[in-house]
C-alpha cells in the first residue's frame, strides 16, 4: 500500500515550468522586454569598447551618461546578447530569463553600491550605474512577471487556467 501511495505521489510531481503554457500572447511582452533591454546593453557595451577604455580602469570614463570600462563593456555585450537570444526564443524561456536577469541586476546594484569608492570597484560603477542597474532590474522583472504573478489573474489568462485545472485532468 505504501508503494502504491509513493508511486501515485511521484506520478503527480511538478517539475519546473511544467504548469506554464508553452505558447501564448503574453510571449510578446516577454520578447519586447528582453529585446529592449538587450539592445540597449549591446549598444552601451559596443560604445564602451569603441572608446578604448582600459579593462580594469576605474577612472570614470563615461558612455551614454554611465561610467564604464572594458570589463563592464564586455559584460554588457554578453548580457545584451543573452537577452536578445531570449527575445528570439520567446515564451516561458524569455519570461524566466527576464526574471533571473532582473534579480541579478538588482543584486549587482546593491553589491556595486557597496563597492563605490573602494579599490574593488573593478567595473567602474558610479551612482548613476547603480541607479541604472536598479531600474533595469525592476523593468526586467516586471516584463518577466507580467501576466504570471498576481492574485487577480483573469480566468482567460493561460497561467490561471494552468493552475486551476479540473481534478480529472490532474
Describe what this molecule looks like in 3D:
The structure is a single chain. With 170 residues, the protein is mostly helical. The chain has one domain (27-147). Helix content is 61%, strand content 2%. The protein is built from 6 helices and 2 strands. It has helices at 2-11, 27-50, 70-89, 91-115, 127-145, 158-163; strands at 62-63, 66-67. Strands 1-2 form a two-stranded antiparallel ribbon. A hairpin with a 2-residue loop joins strand 1 and strand 2 (66-67). Helix 2 packs across helix 4 (91-115). The chain is elongated. The model is unreliable at 5-18 (pLDDT under 50).
Helix-strand blueprint:
Blueprint: H1 2-11, H2 27-50, E1 62-63, E2 66-67, H3 70-89, H4 91-115, H5 127-145, H6 158-163
Antiparallel strand pairs: 1-2
List key phrases describing it:
single chain, 170 residues, mainly alpha, two-stranded antiparallel ribbon, 6 helices, 2% strand, elongated
What would a concise description of this structure say?
With 170 residues, the chain is mainly α.
Q: How far apart lie the N and C ends?
A: 21 Å
What do the pLDDT scores average to? Answer: 75
How many domains? The number is 1
Name the strands of the widest sheet in spatial order.
1-2
- How can the largest sheet be summarized? 2 strands, antiparallel
* SSE order, one letter for each helix or strand: HHEEHHHH
Low-pLDDT regions: 5-18
The counted number of beta strands is 2
Radius of gyration, whole Å: 21 Å
How would you describe the shape?
Answer: elongated
Amino acid at each position: 500500500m505504501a508503494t502504491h501511495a509513493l508511486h501515485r505521489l511521484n506520478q503527480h510531481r511538478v517539475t519546473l515550468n511544467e504548469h506554464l503554457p508553452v505558447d501564448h500572447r503574453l510571449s510578446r511582452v516577454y520578447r519586447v522586454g528582453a529585446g529592449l533591454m538587450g539592445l540597449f546593453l549591446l549598444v552601451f557595451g559596443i560604445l564602451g569598447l569603441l572608446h578604448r577604455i582600459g579593462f580594469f580602469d576605474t577612472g570614470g570614463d563615461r558612455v551614454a551618461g554611465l561610467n564604464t570600462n572594458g570589463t563592464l563593456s564586455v559584460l554588457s555585450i554578453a548580457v545584451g546578447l543573452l537577452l536578445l537570444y531570449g527575445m528570439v526564443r520567446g515564451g516561458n524561456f524569455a519570461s524566466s530569463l527576464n526574471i533571473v536577469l532582473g534579480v541579478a541586476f538588482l543584486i549587482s546594484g546593491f553589491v556595486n553600491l557597496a563597492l563605490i569608492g573602494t579599490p574593488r570597484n573593478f567595473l567602474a560603477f558610479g551612482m548613476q550605474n547603480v541607479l541604472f542597474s536598479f531600474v533595469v532590474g525592476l523593468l526586467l522583472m516586471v516584463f518577466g512577471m507580467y501576466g504570471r504573478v498576481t492574485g487577480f489573474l483573469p480566468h482567460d489568462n493561460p497561467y490561471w487556467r494552468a493552475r486551476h485545472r479540473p481534478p480529472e485532468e490532474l
